[in-house]
Amino acid sequence: MINLENLGKRFGGMWAVRDLTLAVPPGELFCFLGPNGAGKTTTIKMACGLLHPTAGTARVAGGDPATNQSVRAAIGYIPDAPFLYERLTAAEFFDFVGAIYRVPPARIRRERAELFELFDLHARAGSMVGDLSHGFRQRLIYAATFLHQPRVLFVDEPFIGLDPFTIRLLRDFLRRKARAGMTIFLTTHILALAEDLADRVGIIAQGRLVALGTVAELRARAAGAGALEDIFLEITRPAPVLDADKKTDVA
Questions:
Q1: What does the alpha-carbon distance between residue 81 and residue 134 come to, in Å, rounded to a whole number?
Q2: What are the CA-CA distances from residue 105 to residues 70, 94, 100, 115, 225 (Å)?
């Protein structure tokens, strides 16, 4: 469902992502991990067609998301800081997103009733988006993203700043969607949640994919490290810097 082949993106003289080859099959919940600046968001934007690769190819749902409108219609994308029109009410924003995707009005109303119930947004349907808390804004963007029933979902840092109740709500929702066949590609710095959620994990460092597999497979590679946090730190630990002034004796 997601196929990245030798994918690379260069900004000026720096490669943000380099030689990334990765396949995510239908129905997999894939967690993409890495330190800040490792290339996670750049990868997602190329996979969604928002950035053109410098090298390699990205194919999602059988086509190129940068040029194929039907492929873009099959994708849902939730960035780490989504833009919402703050002068609209929650219901108006939801309806506006439906109109963008040309969803019939009757279906918009039906989906709004169901998704606002699921995400506990009914009491805030008439509230201005700008007046919603961070947690309810996140719930609204999830509801709006699923309105057009995407086959592939990209989520960049879905749990930032959320309370435990909302985290559990979104975690369980993503699990259900993956079990129903949706392909989900997400990034997170909350490694315990990634360990709990992921079918497989990919770890990127300095723009390159450095580890890929189930948590059990990564644990075996990382010399018996226990939790995913330990595995992550072991794999991404910077190489020691040698002291150029230190002399070594040669026998």
A1: 10
A2: 20, 11, 12, 15, 52
DSSP string, 213-250: E-HHHHHHHTTT--SHHHHHHHHHPPPPPP-TT-----
Strand 14-24 and strand 208-213: the pairing is: unpaired
169: three-class secondary structure by DSSP = helix
Taking the CB of residue 85, how many other CB atoms lie within 10 A of it?
A: 13
| DSSP conformation letters of 35-87 | -TTSSHHHHHHHHHTSS--SEEEEEETTB-TTT-HHHHHTEEEE-SS----TT
CB atoms within 10 A of CB 164: 8
Spell out the residues 6+ positions from residue 173 whose beta carbon is closer than 8 angstroms to its own: 118, 142
Sign of CA dihedral 46, 59, 232, 236: negative
**Domain range summary for the chain, segments of one domain joined by +:** 2-74+151-236, 84-149
Task: Give the tens place of pLDDT for each residue, 177-228.
Answer: 999 999 999 998 888 888 889 999 999 999 999 999 998 888 887 766 677 8
Answer yes or no: are the C-beta atoms of 142 and 136 closer than 8 Å. Answer: no
Three-class SS state of 11 = strand
Query: What pLDDT digit, counting tens, does each position of 160-170 carry?
Result: 878 888 888 88
Candidates 61, 126, 63; CA nearest to 95 is 126
User: CATH second-level architecture of 2-74+151-236?
Assistant: 3-Layer(aba) Sandwich (3.40)
pTM for the model stands at 0.87
- Cα-based distances in Å from 180 to 5, 85, 150, 176, 189: 27, 31, 12, 6, 25
Looking only at the bridges linking them, the beta strands covering 152-156 and 75-78 are parallel
